[in-house]
Recover the amino acids of this structure.
């Protein structure tokens, strides 16, 4: 065991969320072990996609998020609830039309939020905040 040369600092999600308004744009707030913690503000329906080789973690900070799966099944997530979407499984994040949802996503650094789909929603380089 080695001691950190500098103590890590707590990341305040509320403060980070105050730093941007643009919806459907992932913002990187931390990295670890080739993974990234990403904050996003979303409203409405995202595009259907999958991530062939990587699981993806969703955790709403505010609001209610649904993750839709093929076949008409959905998982509802509120603040403090977390879902791991397995690699290769098609999914579509969705909110109530009138409600913006703020959420934390955990992905490998190499993962695109729209999977292999190149959509008008695709953000190539996530801003770091
Ligand atoms: Ni995804």
């Amino acid at each position: 065991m080695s001691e950190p040369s500098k103590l890590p600092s707590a990341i305040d999600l509320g403060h980070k969320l105050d730093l941007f308004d643009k919806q459907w744009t992932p913002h990187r707030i931390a990295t670890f072990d080739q993974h990234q913690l990403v904050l996003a503000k979303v409203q409405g329906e995202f595009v259907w996609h999958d991530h062939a080789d990587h699981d993806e973690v969703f955790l709403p900070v505010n609001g209610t998020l649904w993750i839709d799966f093929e076949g008409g099944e959905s998982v509802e997530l509120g603040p403090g609830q977390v879902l791991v979407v397995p690699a290769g499984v098609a999914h579509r994040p969705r909110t109530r039309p009138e409600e913006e949802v703020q959420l934390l996503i955990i992905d490998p650094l190499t993962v695109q939020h729209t999977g292999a789909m190149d959509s008008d929603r695709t953000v190539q380089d996530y801003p770091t905040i």
Residues 49, 51, 56, 91, 113, 115 surround nickel (II) ion (CB under 6 Å). Residues 23-108 form a domain with the Jelly Rolls fold (CATH 2.60.120.10). Helices lie at 13-17. The first strand starts at residue 27 and ends at 32.
